[in-house]
Amino acid sequence: MNIQPNALYQEMQSLALEATRNKPQESLPVQSSATSSAQFGELLSDAINTVNGLQKEAKSKVTALEMGDRSVSLAEVMIASQKSSVAFEATVQVRNKLVESYKEIMSMPV
Q: Where are the membrane-spanning stretches (predicted)?
């Protein structure tokens, strides 16, 4: 699974446009918590698999460049490495926020 910057940017723009529209709250669909948690788990798993794929791709391009493969340019290697790095850093930040939220919830008085 590859991250397409243009597709991601377009999705972000469409979400921003939807957020700015004046829609009544009752038009939003209501989901059960079991469905939401299952979707969150799938979303998290897909994101981790995407990051793993980006890291594998970057490693294979670095290895190919080091072995002298002329079909792989230094620019491709650097772009793949940076995509991998940014995706991993975003994953770490999400993990940090989840841990922080968990600690905050656990410290709430019952």
A: none
| Burial class for 75, CB neighbours closer than 10 Å (0-12, 13-18, 19+) | exposed
Tell me how far apart the alpha carbons of residues 105 and 110 are, in angstroms, rounded to a whole number: 10
pLDDT tens sequence across 84-102: 999 999 999 999 999 999 9
C-alpha distances (whole Å) from 13 to each of 4, 32, 47, 83, 86 are 14, 27, 20, 21, 20
Domain boundaries, the chain: 35-110
